[in-house]
Amino acid sequence: NAGVTQTPKFQVLKTGQSMTLQCAQDMNHNSMYWYRQDPGMGLRLIYYSASEGTTDKGEVPNGYNVSRLNKREFSLRLESAAPSQTSVYFCASTDTGELFFGEGSRLTVL
Amino acid sequence: RKEVEQDPGPFNVPEGATVAFNCTYSNSASQSFFWYRQDCRKEPKLLMSVYSSGNEDGRFTAQLNRASQYISLLIRDSKLSDSATYLCVAYGANAGKSTFGDGTTLTVKP
Question: DSSP 3-state assignment of B89?
């Protein structure tokens, strides 16, 4: 029962470095999401993909790009990391509105 | 104005107390609603869906008022283990987007 798998779980970057967060789901869901959560705040939507082949900006897309590689996989890329992108990133998927989450990726940008 | 707004809290209550959380949403196209529970910055987990007729799961009762665009969660006979952050979510199937409130933190004390 893998559900939603995110990698890596932890990452430390220097300002200006790039990296990609990977997310895969095995529930055949159409919709996938990337959220970030900063200390003391709720989840803010970065990008989402309502179906394979489509992606849309969420509330806080600046500094990020996404790729819906296939129905299973939805990756999030930071081209030039900034300290403001230090956060916990959650990937999620759904078909009915009930979201299934990965365990989160904790990213620190120095 | 945020699309989904919750009582900011925090709520500090004694064991056995009844506590109610409120949530409003601004997008009238939202179709499904949920309450999630989040512990210590782990991934959110579904607590319950919210139906128009209201629904109950043990000590938890959820209500939806579409006319007022209002959702509530009632917890009766609070337990220490109920201490967590509770997140309200509105899902719009047409847009395929799930939007979270900032969460309300509950601490149940002995």
Answer: strand
Contacts of B98 in chain A (CB under 8 A): 33, 45, 48, 92, 94, 97, 99
The angle subtended at Cα B69 by Cα B105 and Cα B53, nearest 5°, is: 90
Per residue in A64-74, is it b (16+ CB within 10 Å) or e — as a string? bebebeebbbb
- pLDDT for residue B93 is more than 70: no
Sequence-distant contacts of B24-28: CB under 8 A, at least 24 apart? B24/B68, B24/B69, B24/B70, B24/B71, B25/B69, B25/B70, B25/B71, B25/B88, B25/B90, B25/B99, B26/B1, B26/B2, B26/B69, B27/B3, B27/B90, B27/B92, B27/B99, B28/B69
User: Does A90 sit within 8 Å of B49, measured CB to CB?
Assistant: no
How far apart CA A32 and CA A88 sit, in angstroms, is 17
Distance CA A94, CA B71 (A): 21
Q: Is the pLDDT of residue B45 over 80?
A: yes
Is B43 in Cβ contact with A97 (below 8 Å)?
Answer: no
Check whether A108 has a pLDDT greater than 90.
yes
Are the Cβ atoms of A42 and B32 closer than 8 angstroms? no
pLDDT tens sequence across A7-62: 999 999 999 999 999 999 999 999 999 999 998 788 999 999 989 989 999 989 99
